[in-house]
Amino acid sequence: MPKILRIRYIPPETVDISGDRLLYRDQAHLVTSWQPIRPRADFDHGMSCLFLEEGIKVSRFMDAAGEMLYWYVDLVDISYDPDNDTYQLRDLLADVRILPDGQVEIIDLDELADALEQRLISERQAIMALRILHDLLTDVKSGRQPAQAAEWMRKALEKD
């Protein structure tokens, strides 16, 4: 079981999410199911597919009945330490929410700007975030995402 650390800049925190249930793992993907770190009124649980090469974590947020509420995509700078089997997921702040009707919301670009301005992230990370965001929006427009994440989640559940 790998160790997975989620590192946020705003607010600053490192959270060990290794307790999430690992459903599938290969060189390019991690698929997990999880409960929120802190209890939430707006959703009950979720599943995530981490695309290690693309720098995105696509999550399906669900209610208590298992109905999908929305997709949420975190942009992440990922590093992996094979000696310790540890992933570090550095949150690049900008996020995308995709509603069931297909509406796309880009979230927290102001936090990305604040983090760059305050030198909490590097110029390289800010550029990476913008490039990942561009590629993600292209994939959403073409229908590639979140369909690809849904397919990986389906496959992971079948193997489980």
Structure overview:
There is one protein chain. This protein has 160 residues and is of the alpha+beta class. It has a single domain, classed as FomD barrel-like fold (Beta Barrel), CATH 2.40.380. The protein contains three helices and nine strands, in the order E-E-E-E-E-E-E-E-E-H-H-H. The chain has helices at 109-117, 123-142, 147-159; strands spanning 3-9, 12-16, 21-25, 29-34, 45-51, 56-62, 68-81, 86-98, 104-107. Strands 1, 2, 3, 4, 5, 6, 7, 8 and 9 form a nine-stranded mixed β-sheet that branches. Strand 6 (56-62) and strand 7 form a beta hairpin. The longest helix has 20 residues, at 123-142. The protein starts with a strand and ends with a helix. 29% of the residues are buried. The mean pLDDT is 96.
In short:
This protein is an alpha+beta fold. The chain is 26% helix and 42% strand.
Q: How is the secondary structure organized here?
A:
Elements: E1 3-9, E2 12-16, E3 21-25, E4 29-34, E5 45-51, E6 56-62, E7 68-81, E8 86-98, E9 104-107, H1 109-117, H2 123-142, H3 147-159
Parallel strand pairs: 1-8
Antiparallel strand pairs: 1-2, 3-4, 4-5, 5-6, 6-7, 7-8, 8-9
Global shape: globular
Q: Which secondary-structure class do the elements indicate? A: alpha+beta
Mean pLDDT: 96
Number of helices: 3
The domain count comes to 1
Residue fraction in strands: 35-45%
User: Main sheet, how many strands, which sense, barrel?
Assistant: 9 strands, mixed
Radius of gyration: 15 Å
Low-pLDDT segments, ≥5 res: none
How many strand elements?
9
| The CATH topology | FomD barrel-like fold
H/E element sequence: EEEEEEEEEHHH
Architecture per CATH nomenclature, i.e. the level-2 architecture: Beta Barrel
Helix content: 25-40%
CATH superfamily: FomD-like
- End-to-end CA span: 15 Å
CATH class: Mainly Beta
